[in-house]
Amino acid sequence: MLIFANYFLQVAAVLHISLYVCPQTVVSSLSQAHDCFGLANHLAGKPLFRLSRCSRDGQAVQLPYARIDVDGDLVLAESADLLLPATGSDIARTLADNQTLLDWLARRPASQTLASLCSSAFLLAEAGQLDGGPATTHWALASQFRQRYPRVRLQVQHLHCQHQQRFTSGGAQAGLDLCLHLISLHAGPWLAEQVAAALVVDRQRGEQTRFQPLLPTPRQDDPALLDLLRWLQRRHASSIDLEMLASRLHCSTRTLLRRFKAATGLTPNDYLQRLRIVAAQSALRQPQQSLEQIALNVGYQDRATFARLFKQLCGETPGAYRRRVLTP
């Protein structure tokens, strides 16, 4: 961590961050970065961060809700200490429309710092800039990212990742976590804490895993399987095996596994465990129930197994989850 702080401070007293704007830019992410670094300058009482905006050709970019003026083209970004694009979830269109940026990124040396907000990690990965290292992006894009970039070690559970001079972040508000991290590296943790306090956000927000819905939306083309899922929701605390489920679906266990996977992306056991943990999340909002009682009520005979699966799926312990959701 200190290596990167020294790197930033040696490059310039003022860190020049160039925000890349294109038709797929998310306005909220762009303004969030502007506000975060601008507030850091205000609280520090001096300009520690200089922000510029660049586009593919140096022309203003029309977005659905605003027309964004820029300060130059990618030549401007070459002189910046850090390039930071922010794009949305239409990955195919983003990659197709930003070939000029991809070519530019592919030529960037390891010494130039590159970062991404949310799905912009696809731009860095497409240009080969994330190969061999860890990275993150929005949890909903994890499968697509892994399939397209097997040489990147995706760690989608993290809100942001750092590998040498490459930085990535998860969805939406995780971009703010990354901006605060960059402020900490360049100007110290104290200023990052002050900015977080002014924005009324917590710097210790855990992992992205806890924001991901535990239960997938099932496909709707197998009505009998949908009925089985509804039955499971009512009986999740009971002892249930494959033979029982196959019998209710009037098929073999092999056919059950195939149809279940096709509809949900999960095995029956994985789906059952997620049902139980979702029920536990609801119960944990009731302070009068003990963790042992909740574990029993949702289908686990011992608290240790329950706690292990809860943390595995939610990214935090049952106790931590209860404290967070019950804190006013």
TrEMBL record:
Keyword set includes Transcription regulation: yes
InterPro entries linked: Class_I_gatase-like (IPR029062), Homeodomain-like_sf (IPR009057), HTH_AraC (IPR018060), HTH_AraC-typ_CS (IPR018062), INH-QAR (IPR052158), Tscrpt_reg_AraC-type_HTH (IPR020449)
One Gene Ontology MF term: DNA-binding transcription factor activity
Residue ranges of domain HTH araC/xylS-type in the record: 226-324
Alphabetical list of SUPFAM superfamilies matching this protein: Class I glutamine amidotransferase-like, Homeodomain-like
Keyword terms: DNA-binding, Transcription, Transcription regulation
GO biological process: positive regulation of metabolic process
PANTHER family linked to this entry: ARAC-FAMILY TRANSCRIPTIONAL REGULATOR, HTH-TYPE TRANSCRIPTIONAL REGULATOR RV1931C
Protein name listed in UniProt: Transcriptional regulator GlxA family with amidase domain
